[in-house]
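Section 3.1: Structural characterization of target chains.
Under the original work plan, the team committed to producing a structural model for every single-chain target entering the pipeline before any wet-lab resources were allocated. The record below documents one such target. The sequence was received from the expression subgroup and is listed exactly as submitted; it comprises 287 residues.
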Amino acid sequence: MSFADRRRALHETMIDIYVLQQKEEISQRQITSATAILTAYNEQAAKGNIPSMETFRIKTMVCGLEQDLTALRQQEQDLWKDVRTQIDVAPQKCRPECSSLDSDLLLLHQRIETSPLPHPAMSCALASEEAAEKAWRTEKAEALPKLSLQAEYDKNGNIGRNFVAFGVNVTVPLWNRNKGNIAAERARYNQETLKKNLLHNTLLKQWQTDYANAVTWKETVDKQSKDLSEELEKGLQATETQMLRHNIGILAFVDYYNNYKDVRYQLLEAQAELLKAHEAVRYDLAE
């Protein structure tokens, strides 16, 4: 695994840790709220003002929330063990940032539109194709017959060699003297061209997919109301107040708590997908 691959895997693990930490905060918020209500209901039940069944239902709810929180913390600890096998870092609060997403998307889009694709592997493939083409052309040039002219002159010289002579040497066969070498170099050139095209298509498809994925998740997160988390928190506080005043029943109380957690989790998952999509874009730019 290359350094870029290890870095990407590490960053994605940190994103998973961030999501778990946020879920832990959500669970802790629910536990704090439900515990406050349970305390008040226990006092009222002791006075005989409310049935004990309602306090029991809230108590089981708190117990379930505490178990969920313990499970989340255990998952976080397991992920930190994986992280510490790669880097020496103590568990801490994770705060991923996505501020450079727009500029990174612009850079990746420019790379997609560039020909040839600006990538080290692509440069090597082009160099190999060019070298194979030159070797093929050289062998084709060697296929032509070689001609050589020769002349001798010995006028009034040694006895027996009083002559002037001209000659032409021609190699045989006249054509396709090295058919085997030409075929081999052509095959190598075709193979290098095939490798180059395959690499180009693979890189282009990967970049286009990562770009589209990041744009899609960015639009999804942007469409979500930025104030939705605050609205959910206000709703939780209002539900807690109404529950303490006995204006709503236990079923409505539990229903809102479950809805609060589900919506907050959905927002977190969308944010995590955007962060991982951004990490994929960074990986493409770093190659």
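The two ends are 13 Å apart (CA to CA).
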